[in-house]
Each structure stands twice: as C-alpha cells, then as structure tokens.
Amino acid sequence: MTKLRRKLCLLIIVFLSLYCSAQALLTLTYANPELPVQNADTDLQYATIQAAINAKETLDGHTIQVNAGTYNENLVLNKSITLIGQNKFNTIIHEQFPQSIIYITANNTKLVGFTIEKSSFGYSSIYLYHSRGCNITDNVIKDSYYGIQLYNSPNNTMSGNMISTCEYGIRLYNSTSNTLSENTVVDNKNGIQIDVSNSNTVSRNNITLNIWNGIYLFQASNNTISDNNLSLNSPRGIRSNNSTNNTFFNNTVMNSEHGFSLYESNKNNLYLNIVSDNTRGIWLMHSNHNIIRANTISNNSQYGLRLLNSSDNKIFQNNFVNNTLKNAEQPSNTSFGNLWDNSFEGNYWSDQNGTDANKDGINDTPYITDQRTWLGIHSKDNYPLMGPFQPLNLQFQNQSYSIEIISNSTITEIQYKYSQKKEEAMLTLKSISPQNSSFCRICVPHALVEPPYDITINDNPPTYNNTIHTNGTYTWIYVGYNSTENATTITLMQKIMPIPQPPIWTQWPFWELLGLIIFAVILSLINIKYHQIINKHKNLLRLYEEKLQKADPIIIARELFTADVISRKTK
C-alpha cells in the first residue's frame, strides 16, 4: 500500500511538473516577438488567428492585428472583435478544411484588410450567420463559391471590397436593412444576389463581367438599388424575379443582353437610370403597376422598352433615343392599360414626327406605342416631348430642389443666387446646342424664384417667352432663343418687392396712441373747468367779505337767505 501511494504521489508530481512546464512554455509563446498575430489591447501574441480569437484574454471590443502572410485556417468569430490585416493584398487566409473560411456568429464584428480565397463548393469566404452590426470593409475575396454570404443577418455593412471569380459575389438570404456600397464585383457568375431579403441598400458599386446577372433580386421587397455602374453582365444587368416595391435609381446599365429584366415583378420604381448599348434596354414580362420615369434608354440594338403580358404600368418623362429595332415594343393583345404620359408630359421619342404650333414643348401629334391600330384601340403617348427630358438637382441651404427641363439643347450647368440685400433671386442655366434655334421648357420651384420673371438670354431678351402653367408651387415656362457657338446663358430673375405695410390706422399702436391723446385732452379740459369753478367761488367769497365790512349783518343775512331760497326753487 505504501508503494502504491509513493507511485501515485510520483505521478501527481510528474503531472504537475508537466503542467507547469506547459504553462511556462505558453507564457514564453505569448511573449515571443516573432509571432504574427497580436491583440492590440493586451499586447499578447499568437501563432494563429484562431488562437488569438479563442484566448480567454481576448474580450468583446478588442482589436486583433494580423501581419502579412498566408494563413491556412478556418476562422470562427464568436466574439465582437475587430480583425485587421496588415495589407489586403498579402495578408491571405486559405481554408484548412472544406468549410466557410470565416464564419461569423457574433454581432458588431469588423473585418478589414485581408485576401480571403478558395473556399470549397457550397461554402463561403465570409459567412455571417444570425449576426448584426458587422462591418466587412476593404477586403479582396476571390475564387470561392460564395464571396460574402449573409443568412438571417440584419443591419450589416459591406463596403469597399473587391470580389471576383465566385459563383455568387455577394448573396443575402432572409437578411434585412444591410448596406452594400462601393464594392467592385467582377467576373463572378452572379454579382450581387438578394434572395427573400427586404429593405437593403445597394449603392455606388462597380459590377461588371458577371456571367449570369449583375444584380439579381428574387422574392425581395423594398430594396433600394442606386448609383451603381453595371456593364458587360450577361445576359442581364439587373434582374428582378417575383419582387415588389423596389426602387432602382440613377444606375448606369450598359452592354448586356437585357439592361433591366423584370419578371412577375410589380409596383417597382425605375427612375433616372441610363440604359444604353444593350440588346434590349428594359424588358417587362408579366409585370404590372410599375413606374418607369425619367430614364434615358438609348442605342440598344433591338428594343428600348418591351412589354410582354404586362399591364397598368406608368411610363413617362423617359428619353427613347436611337434604339435600333424600335424604341418601344408592346405586342398586340398582351399588354393593356399602360399609361405613356402623366396627363401633362409624356416621353421623348427620337423617331417621332410632328410640330409644336403653340410652343409649349409638347408635340401636337400623339405617339402610337403598339400595333393595335387596326382594332381602333391602341396605346399612345398623348403628350410626347419635343426635346429630351433633363431633371436637374439644385442644392441650396441644405435643401434639394428639383428643376425639370425639356429642351433640344443640353443643359450643362445650373446656378442659383439669392441676395436679401439687393432683394433679388436669380436662376442661371448654361446650355450647349448643335442648332441655331433652341427652346427650353423649365419647371421652376417658387421656393427658389417666384413669378413674374425677368428672363434674359446672354443678357438679351429671348426670341419667345410664354408661361405655360402655374399651380402655386411651380411655374412652367417656355423660352425660345438663338443659340451661339459657345454656351448660352439663360437667366431667370425675380425682383423681390418689399413687403407692403398695412395702413397706419389698421395697426394697434395707432389706436393706442390716439386713445392716450384723447384721454390727455379730456383730462386737460377737466382741469381747466375745475380751475374756472375754483376761481368763481374765490371771487364770490371776496364779494361777501366786502359786503360784510360795509353793511348791517342782519340785512346781509336776510339777503343771503332770500337768494338761497330763490336758487333752490330755480334748481
């Protein structure tokens, strides 16, 4: 028994020695200045990125810095930390085994400055799972199945990343209110795909050379797709399938088979996009109640806009220019109830004929948009524009004002000046025109310049000037002028009249002063009357005194008594 106890004690001593030695070695490892991963908050160093994340000293809010090099790891970010690579081009993370390379489950993580590449089929370079408030910024992501994938992850930001040669560059699934901005998404199969995800913002991205779709929305609603440049995505620049209430604003979509392709997608808004040099500009199939407004649809080799089994769409203030086969195609008996104007302004059609006899910027002849003329029913633009529609945005005192222009000239500059001292407001437009005779129809906000207007062209009167319409908020004016070789300056000036003051007798101070004057006059009259009575009594007393000195007192008393009796009777 004693020997057994000795052996047991010896084993315990050996175990404790090994444990202490391991702890000592671990401490030495922490202190080794050669290790490439460091916690910036604790100054502890690690051999691998995952070791730094797992360390008990690493807490939420800490920053882990990673030196340049290649790391064969699959990372799990389960703490709210910031992970920063030394240089995004040579701080490289490869997968160690077939899983997502960086798997994020914590909220409020930040990942900056890495190349993450070569995830296996079906896995992601970066995968956010039930995570919110994360920031994926300035990384290079390539050669993976999913570049960045979000699953049930809201309120995250992906910005400034370069994503290439992936099956899906960025994919959102059941994820809301995320922001994807300023990313370069090139040479993937699908650039950005938004599946069953709502209220996301996709803006200012460069999306090119993707094999299937530049941006693809599937069963997605209330997303904003704005200010993106898309080119050479085949077959579709922007594709929407079974998606509603999305806004596509100020995107440039070029050199694809379809610029926009909407299939079974309703109540979307396409506004101020440039859709050029595609095979088909905008194609709607089984898509209803969409608004297509103020887009430039030009130089597409077949159709500018084609509607197939799509009805009750509103299409106005667009510029259809030089689309080779046809500016608009609406096959007979497939699409009904589409409106091609807003009952005031329609679209500009480069292949239209007609005149503008009343000089209001609207063609006197409607533009027929389908082939059902033989039925006696056909869709038409009742107010086709005589020149391209040019919406301009003016910023003044932290407010934005929209100034809408129809002109056969190109407006290159707009300025606004307001002088309270000189009591004047001035709106100036500069235009360039290839022709001598030009016109400009301007919608002027009264908040900037109120009518009536003093209009000049290069400081001279215009050849023609007409107020078309005013509604108390805007005034539409038509200006005709002769263009010059250089830029033509159109100036609208409003002389701000001084605010007329009401008559003095309608103001309270006038009546207050008048009341004081009348009161003072009454007091003065009372004072004068009072002094007159006092003086009269003084004279009467003096007379009595004189009589008392000269006459018999009994006689005087009798006279006074008699006078008093007579006075009372008189009263």
Topology:
Layout lengths: L1 H30 L5 E3 L5 E2 L2 H6 L8 E4 L2 E4 L2 E3 L4 E4 L5 E4 L7 E3 L5 E3 L2 E3 L6 E6 L5 E3 L2 E3 L3 E6 L5 E3 L2 E3 L3 E6 L5 E3 L2 E3 L3 E6 L5 E3 L2 E3 L4 E6 L5 E3 L2 E3 L4 E6 L5 E3 L2 E3 L3 E6 L5 E3 L2 E3 L3 E6 L5 E3 L2 E3 L4 E6 L5 E3 L2 E3 L4 E4 L18 E2 L17 E2 L11 E2 L7 E8 L2 E9 L2 E10 L4 E9 L4 E9 L8 E4 L6 E7 L3 E9 L5 E8 L12 H43 L2 H18 L1
Parallel strand pairs: 3-6, 4-7, 5-8, 6-9, 7-10, 8-11, 9-12, 10-13, 11-14, 12-15, 13-16, 14-17, 15-18, 16-19, 17-20, 18-21, 19-22, 20-23, 21-24, 22-25, 23-26, 24-27, 25-28, 26-29, 27-30, 28-31, 29-32, 30-33, 31-34, 32-35, 33-36, 34-37, 35-38, 37-39
Antiparallel strand pairs: 1-2, 1-3, 40-41, 42-43, 43-46, 44-45, 45-50, 46-49, 47-50, 48-49
Could you please describe the fold and organization of this structure?
- The chain has 571 residues and is of the alpha/beta class.
- It contains 4 helices and 50 strands.
- The strands form 6 sheets. A 14-stranded mixed β-sheet has the order 2-1-3-6-9-12-15-18-21-24-27-30-33-36. A 13-stranded parallel β-sheet has the order 4-7-10-13-16-19-22-25-28-31-34-37-39, with no helix packed on it. Strands 5-8-11-14-17-20-23-26-29-32-35-38 form a 12-stranded parallel β-sheet.
- A hairpin with a 5-residue loop joins strand 1 and strand 2.
- The radius of gyration is 43 Å and the shape is flat.
